[in-house]
Design a protein that fits this description.
Blueprint: H1 6-12, H2 22-38, H3 60-81, H4 88-97, H5 102-105, H6 114-118, H7 123-131, H8 136-144, H9 156-177
Helix pairs in contact: 2-4, 3-4, 3-9, 4-8, 4-9, 7-8, 8-9
Length: 179
Amino acid sequence: MIQISKEEICHLLPQFDLVQDAALKDVALSIWQEACLKADWDDLKAIPFGPGYDAVRAGFLHHVAAVTQYSYVLAKAYNDLESEPLNVDYCVVGALLHDVCKIVEYSAAGGRTAWGNHVSHAIYGVALCEKYGVPLEITHIVASHTSKLSMPNKSPEAIIVAKADGVAAGIVHLFEDNK
């Protein structure tokens, strides 16, 4: 279990400051706090990108930060280029929440928790989004970022976060394969 303040989460993930809607930011931080309370970890910095990865070289927090930053930049560029603007906050919050489930899916003992072994990736994040009343568009981003749920991306925001996740994960795999 990790007891952590919203301020501490923002210190670890300064990308939370990209969220313009204060109420939406607060809800996303509450979701992170709840996931941390359910974790068997003592420290968010110890969580790896995935089981078997080194948390220092390929950490969960770095992955979430990268996906969020990439999503933010892509969303801003999209709005500069396209005639129908998208919701940048939805991209940012969707990216911040896309892998919040990993906090409970991965075990500090190594491998996956019982939750991670029995429930598909992203389901816990979707459940938290529903519990906290996150807009359905953001819940869709969390649900559709992974092929494990076979939910197609149905919005520009969802496509941006899924592609940003793919880029960030691809880079982790590249570094891991070449170490």
